[in-house]
Amino acid sequence: MDCIFCKIVNGEIPSNKIYEDDDIVAFNDLSPQSPIHFLVIPKRHIESCNFVDKENAEVVGKIFLKISELAKEMGFDKSGYRIVNNCNDDGGQTVKHLHFHVLAGRSLNWPPG
C-alpha cells in the first residue's frame, strides 16, 4: 500500500508527532492553515468515513476524545477550534486514509477560505 499516513505510522516518513498510542497518532500538518494545525489519524488504515463500521468505530470515538484532551492541554479549548474531515474527491480528501484536521489559534470564519 502506498499510503503516506501509513508510512508515517510505520516510521518510514518522519513527522512532528504530538501524541501517539497503540491506536492513533497526532502530528503537525506540513502546510498549516492556522497557528495550530495538526492531524489525528487511526494507525489502522481506514480509507475514509465511508469505511467506518462496527469493527472500527471505537477508534473514531477515541480520536475525538483525544482531540478534546489535546485542546485542553494545548490551551485552545476555551477560545475554540475546528475539526475537519474530508471524504472522497469532491469532499477534498487528498490522502485516502481517514484523518481529522484540528485548526486553532485564530478566528475561523464560515464559509472557510
From TrEMBL:
GO terms for molecular function: hydrolase activity. A motif (Histidine triad motif) lies at residues 97-101. Residues 4-113 form the HIT domain. The keyword Cell inner membrane does not apply. The active site is at 99 (tele-amp-histidine intermediate). Keywords: Hydrolase. PANTHER family: HISTIDINE TRIAD HIT PROTEIN. This is HIT family hydrolase. It comes from Parvimonas micra. The lineage of its organism: Bacteria, Bacillati, Bacillota, Tissierellia, Tissierellales.
